[in-house]
Design goal:
The chain is of the alpha+beta class. It is built from 11 helices and 23 strands.
Length: 441
């Protein structure tokens, strides 16, 4: 999620989003059953980016829940992201404090299902799950039985400690194993993998980054995990960098800026990073943000691995760096979210008192070249298929090998030329709210 950084909101902007695996009930029961609904409507009229598209007359009595009201207020032609949650869930999510199994999945070109990533401290991580394990059964039923229109619904239960599910895997060596995994609290890591690949007299950094989460209780807002990764690549004196954002659905703008300030060429220091724009009633809050080069990483270009799961702050990084360096996208077209949000309970006493966090789209962002409306996502420069059946760093991963081939040869590798490509449903398509920002189970 893109998050505003204007001065009057500074007390709000202390953290970045993470994942929960199910939507929490957000309706409270004040004395007046419509009190919260009216507060939602008032806040939308004041702050919603598309407030000129709101209906002129709204009867809140006609909506059974807060979520139903919000959905009917949304400008659904463009808005796929506005949501309600609680203040605790919002803040926990931004700092990676999760409950669940702690894994993601990916589909190969044959619609076989594989573990795509695992959070180290999660129940799945502690049980030793690895990217590349094929999921063949969930709770004793074959994967095909969970297929629904447009995706999968695995019925894994509420996102609460103690909920268990049993998964059967086919491992890379051909053996099978069944694991009963119990959901629990865990701290999600954002850096899934980092390494140095030495090829063709070049030191190439490979960084798999999965969600822009901030470290809790740090001011100014930043990620120590990101800082450690950047220091690693700087100390290795890399010549090139492959930034893998294929599963990165977004997060904190502050952390995105932290990364951009490290990767942008030094000659961009002090130049425009982005402009944010609010609705016409709030356009006095529009602001400009400039680059502040932060280290000695010296890159002429950035190679970014993307998918439909690359959204929001991932796209912000791509868009803001493009005017100042060559940014090459490999994989598949990104999701398409050029707008952002911040929580509104601090601006409405009723929402605050009833623990309802309203997070609607409130602003749009444009880069230094004025590019802002990429609702269809960023198309890739080189298409490459998803190979979630191999672990991170394995050169059988078509997207990684294609990125290396481009860096070394300026072209596709031979294998990529032979592979068919199709954009398919991904986890991000099956989630809403906080989950859509950080899809995981």
């Amino acid at each position: 999620m893109l998050k505003a950084k204007i001065t009057i909101f500074s007390m709000l902007l202390v953290a970045a989003f993470s994942t929960t695996s199910c939507e929490k009930i957000t309706d409270e029961t004040p004395q007046d059953p419509n009190l919260v609904k009216n507060a939602i409507l008032e806040s939308m009229r004041e702050w919603y980016y598309w407030n000129d598209q709101l209906p002129s007359v709204v009867n809140v009595n006609s909506y059974g829940t807060n979520d139903e009201l919000l959905y009917n207020l949304m400008y659904v032609e463009l808005d796929r992201w506005s949501y309600l949650t609680t203040k605790k869930d919002f803040n926990d999510a931004f700092t990676g404090q999760n409950v669940g199994h702690g894994f993601g999945f990916g589909l190969n070109d044959s619609d076989e299902l594989f573990v795509s990533f695992v959070y180290d401290d999660s129940p799945a991580g502690k049980d030793g799950w690895q990217r590349g394990w094929q999921i063949i059964e969930v709770n004793g039923k074959p994967i095909a039985s969970y297929r629904v229109e447009g995706g999968y619904n695995f019925n894994l239960g509420d996102n609460l400690p103690g909920i268990s599910n049993t998964f059967t895997f086919k491992l890379p060596d051909g053996s099978t194993t069944s694991r009963t995994n119990i959901k629990n609290d865990y701290q999600a890591n954002s850096v899934l993998h980092k390494e140095i690949i030495e090829e063709g007299n070049k030191k190439i950094g490979y960084w798999v980054y999965n969600s822009f989460k901030a470290t809790a209780n740090l001011m100014p807002t930043k990620s120590l995990e990101v800082e450690e990764a950047l220091n690693y690549f700087e100390s290795e004196n890399i010549d090139e960098l492959i930034l893998d954002l294929r599963y990165n659905g977004g997060g904190s703008v502050d952390v995105a800026e932290q990364i951009m300030n490290a990767l942008v060429p030094s000659q961009a220091n002090g130049k425009l990073m982005y402009t944010n724009a609010f609705n016409t009633e709030k356009d006095n809050l529009n602001e400009l943000y400039n680059f502040e080069k932060s280290n000695n990483i010296d890159l002429e270009k950035l190679v970014v691995i993307t998918s439909r799961g690359s959204a929001s702050s991932s796209e912000l990084v791509i868009n803001c760096l493009k005017p100042y360096m060559e940014v090459v996208l490999i994989g598949e077209t990104t999701y398409g979210k050029p707008v952002g949000s911040f929580p509104l309970s601090s601006f409405n006493e009723t929402l605050d008192q009833n623990n309802v966090e309203l997070v609607p789209i409130t602003f749009a962002i444009s880069n230094a070249s004025g590019e802002a409306e990429y609702y269809d996502g960023f198309p890739v420069d080189i298409e490459a298929s998803e190979d979630s059946f191999v672990n991170w760093g394995n050169l059988d991963d078509d997207r990684l090998s294609t990125a290396l081939s481009f860096i070394l040869n300026g072209s596709l590798n031979a294998t990529s030329r032979l592979k068919s490509y199709k954009q398919k449903w991904q986890m991000i398509d099956g989630f809403t709210g906080l989950q859509k920002e950080f899809p995981a189970y």
